[in-house]
Design brief:
3-stranded antiparallel sheet; 2 helices; elongated; two-stranded antiparallel sheet; 5 strands; about 40% strand; alpha+beta
């Protein structure tokens, strides 16, 4: 899964970083049906991650060979490069 996301510039400049973890319910068609926030260091990072998650299409789980809904955890890490 390759999820593109924008790190909000104002949060990056203030050094706000960390991991946002969401719990997603994936439908039998692979779309995100519901999501809930499990962990987040900042509400703006939560919003960015929710937007990414809502645009995902994931291969659904299988039960007896038939597509079925499934819960998954989805995390994005936001880190500030301090090496400059």
């Amino acid at each position: 899964m390759n999820a593109h996301h924008e790190y909000p510039a104002d949060l990056r400049s203030r050094g706000i970083e960390g991991r946002v973890t969401l719990k997603l319910l994936i439908s039998d068609t692979g779309a995100v049906e519901t999501l809930s926030v499990e962990q987040s260091p900042h509400h703006e990072l939560t919003k960015v991650t929710q937007n990414v998650a809502n645009n995902l299409v994931i291969e659904p789980g299988l039960c007896s060979g038939a597509p079925t809904e499934m819960p998954i955890n989805f995390s994005l890490n936001y880190f500030v490069d301090r090496s400059y």
